[in-house]
Amino acid sequence: MKKIWKKVLCGVLSLSVFTAGGLEVTALAGEQEEITLHLFHQKQEAQEAFAQIIDRFHAEYPHIIVEQEIVTNDPAAILKARLATGEIPDIFQGSTDTMDIAQGGYMMDLAGEDFLDHITDEARLDSSFTDDEGHTWAMPVDGSCEGIFYNKDIFARYGLSVPGTLSEMKQIIETLEAEGVTPFAMGFKDAWTIKPVSLVAAASAVYGRDADWDSGKDGGETSFAQTEGWSTVFELMKMVYEHGNTKTAFDTDYNGACAMLANGEAAMMINGLWALEPVKEINPDVNLGMMAMPVSEDEKDTKLFQFPDFGLSISASTEHPKEGKLFLEFLTRPEIAELWCSTSKLFSAVKGVSVDFDPMADDVNTYIESGMVCTQVDRGWPTAFGAEYESALSNYLLDLDSLENIMNTLDLAWETARAASQY
Amino acid sequence: MQKWRRKQNAVYLAFIIPALLFFCTFFLYPFIKSLWLSLTDAYGYNPRQHFIGLKNYAEVLKNPGFLNSLKVTLLYTAFVTVVANLIALGLSFLLDGNVRFKKIFRAVFFLPNLMSLIIVSFIWVFLYGSVYRSFVDWLRIPEDFWISWLGNRKMALISMGITAVWQCAGYYMLIYIAGLQNIGRELVEAAQMDGAGTWAVIRYIKFPGLIPVIGMNSVLLITAGFKTFDIPMAMTSGGPAGATTTIALQIYNTGFRSNRTGYATAQAVILFLMISCLTGLLYRFQGRGEEKG
Q1: How confident is the prediction for chain A on average, in pLDDT?
Q2: What stretches of A61-120 show up as alpha helix (H) in DSSP?
Q3: Is A421 touching B (CB cutoff 8 A)?
Q4: Would you place residue A305 in the very low, low, confident or very high pLDDT band (cuts 50, 70, 90)?
């Protein structure tokens, strides 16, 4: 008897589970099912902008909730672990690993989506977003640049103007040193800050002359050793190193260099647009400009390294591809793009959107409008080459190897890195 | 009888199983998988990998970056092992006798060991940087004579070594003190009755008695030295120009910055082999020393 009761009870209980499920389904049938998109990125400074954008997106699509997760500490390693364990965010920032992640098959190809038409062609076709076969693995949202920050007040005090040629640049350095002003602020204790110095020169000396240098290198038609521009890059980097806080360059960190520029202890600093924030935080009144690095006696060679920066991808295995695309589409609307750029102080990748986030933006816009920009440089480099390149830079600065050897090392490192990333 | 024994064995096995499972999942499996990965072209985000034989190992042994990190690690380990041992020994002799406030001193010297290496590293970056600069500035020493603690290739490794010694010497001091307390009081007293001074007691009784402990501390210091990662990561990121890139940091950079998982694993396997050979050798020497003693 007891057993029968048990069976009946079990039956009733399990039935109730079914009915409850059924009720839920019927309740939702009237409206759209609520879904949650998981957004993973590493832009700490964009937290507030994203929160606002997400609210506005939710107001338009009440059934979609976007949850943002910001990882700033070693985001690449964390993303790697997520992908390996199958916990893939619906929308994520692949950053410099975008192409590697795409090759692993984790990203949805966005090529042909209507919302990409709102993005400028240069940004969309950049080799860190769209590959040679025309697959677009990430949607660029904004653009940044790397160049020479200069203190306009110091330049004005000594009657200096933006140099167009290398000899004008050398003249400026000479004048500043004669007046007892340190020309360049360097924070090489943070090794990553050396790279921009070389990239800013490479924009003019290598990629400004041959935008397809990477393909030439891959095809064996050119090499570091054969390209004169690369030797120029290394020599100019050394010129910068020798005319600044040379003795303390490797003792000073990034923040220290920013402070030197902010407090007028140095007239120039080479880095990316992201350095604007920390510099202005130290001294909000500093009057800064941005210029490109001259590499020859021809003004037409002087190009600014300007490139698309932040991009978002959709997971290939997301359960909500339609909603993910809706969110990306939302980011390309002009009013949203403006909100994004004014808060994150960057240039928009969306057509027709230009935001004067800082007086300095004018300088960069002048380069963009006159077409004196170079968008390539390190954008298409094989991932594993980056570390080798950085060590070559400091080896050269500290006279540990000859230029000839370094160029050969770089050639070999490029080939090894390229081979490693192709499977 | 046999049935009982089998049952007994089954019970023992049941007790071992949880630990065995734990060991297999978190040690044996990853270890075997690492060995396999080191023979493949495994790359970052790519879920597939192909067997490529010993190619990674051949590349590691030819790579100047790896050979440089090997040199850096050997120099660093030698410096830390010798200096930390000497300081720890000295402190233990000082604080073993009848010194006033010896317990407080012991605690003070041991304190840095309770801090995380990352925090210790940041403290020393601060000391070598702004604290040092304000100090020499206050002394009015001309800038040309300032020492670049972390910015100079020759100094950076020593600066890192000083940090490591500061952090760990107290710990090894405690082990030495424990070793000293194991040496029979009567031996020391007998020697003193025979007219041995402090130095003679240390030279002929305490020091020989401590030899096994020195061996053990050296093994601990050497293995820790070979695995050093936190200090260069936090203090110098391996710079300037690779002067402080230890093997562990090199492995991390190859695996997580360059995405070359298979290649990085081959480096890790080589590091593992080196550490196990070295400790094996040291234990053998030590074993012989003890037998003789």
Answers
A1: 88
A2: 75-85, 98-103
A3: yes
A4: very high
- Rounded to the nearest 5°, which phi and psi values hold at A36? -120, 130
Domain boundaries, chain A: 35-141+309-349, 144-307+376-421
Q: How far apart are CA A344 and CA A342, in angstroms?
A: 6
Q: Rounded to a whole number, what is the distance in Å from the CA of A250 to chain B's nearest CA?
A: 4
Lowest-confidence range among A132-141, A175-184, A396-405, B128-137? B128-137
Contacts of A84 in chain B (CB under 8 A): 47
Q: Taking residues A206-235, what's their average pLDDT? A: 93
- For residue B4, being part of any structural domain is answered with no
Q: Which of B158, B123, B165, B156 is closest to B239 using CA atoms? A: B156
- CB distance from A384 to chain B under 8 Å? yes
Task: CATH number of the domain at B109, please.
Answer: 1.10.3720.10
Residue B147 lies in a domain: yes
| Burial of residue A175, with CB atoms counted within 10 A of its CB: 0-12 exposed, 13-18 middle, 19 or more buried | middle
Per the DSSP assignment, residues forming a β-bridge with A311 are A140
Strands A64-70, A91-92: pairing is: unpaired
Lowest mean pLDDT among A211-215, A353-357, B11-15, B235-239: A353-357
Query: Would B243 be classed as within a structural domain?
Result: yes
Going by CATH, does the domain composed of A144-307+376-421 fall within 3.90.1150.10? no
Residues near B46 by beta carbon (within 8 Å), at least 6 away in sequence: A100, A103, A104, A423
Q: Would you state the pLDDT for residue A27?
A: 43
Whole-number Å distance between alpha carbons of B16 and A114: 61
In CATH, what class is A35-141+309-349? alpha beta
Residues of chain B falling short of pLDDT 70: 1, 287-293
User: pLDDT by residue (tens digit) across A55-96?
Assistant: 999 999 999 999 999 988 778 888 988 988 889 999 999 888
For residue A315, what is the DSSP state? Answer: B
Determine the 3-state secondary structure of A182 from DSSP: strand
Strand bridging mode A35-41 / A266-272: unpaired
- Please report the pLDDT score of residue A32 as a whole number: 76
Q: Please tell me the predicted confidence (pLDDT) of residue B172.
A: 94
Total domains in chain B come to: 1
Is there a contact between A420 and B260 if contact means CB atoms under 8 Å apart?
yes
Total Cβ atoms within 10 A of residue A198: 27
> Between chains, do A247 and B143 touch, taking CB under 8 Å as contact?
yes
Query: What is the per-residue pLDDT across A108-161, written as a single tens digit (0 to 9) for each?
Result: 999 999 999 999 888 888 888 998 889 999 999 988 899 999 999 999 999 999
Among A97, A190, A394, beta carbon nearest to B45: A97
Predicted local confidence at residue A147, as pLDDT: 94
Picking from A66, A303, A278, the residue whose alpha carbon sits closest to that of residue A164 is A303
Q: Is the torsion defined by CA of B159, B161, B164, B170 positive or negative?
A: negative
| Domain range for B193 | 55-292
Q: Do B151 and A249 touch (CB under 8 A)?
A: yes
The nearest CA of chain A is from the CA of B41 a distance in Å of 7
| ipTM of the complex as predicted | 0.79
Touching check for A106 and chain B: CB below 8 Å?
yes
Domain annotation covers residue B213? yes
Per-residue burial over B130-161, b if 16 or more Cβ lie within 10 Å, else e, is eebeeeeeeeeeeeeeeebbbbbbebbbbbbb
CB distance B228 to B144 below 8 Å: no
Amino acid residing at A179: E
Per DSSP, the residues of B116-149 read -HHHHHHHHHHIIIIIHHHHHHHTT--GGG---T
Other Cβ atoms closer than 10 A to A24: 11
Distance of CA B43 to the CA centre of its chain: 30
Please tell me if the domain spanning A35-141+309-349 has the same topology as the one spanning A144-307+376-421.
yes
Residue A126 belongs to what H/E stretch?
none
For A152, the token pair is: 């306009």
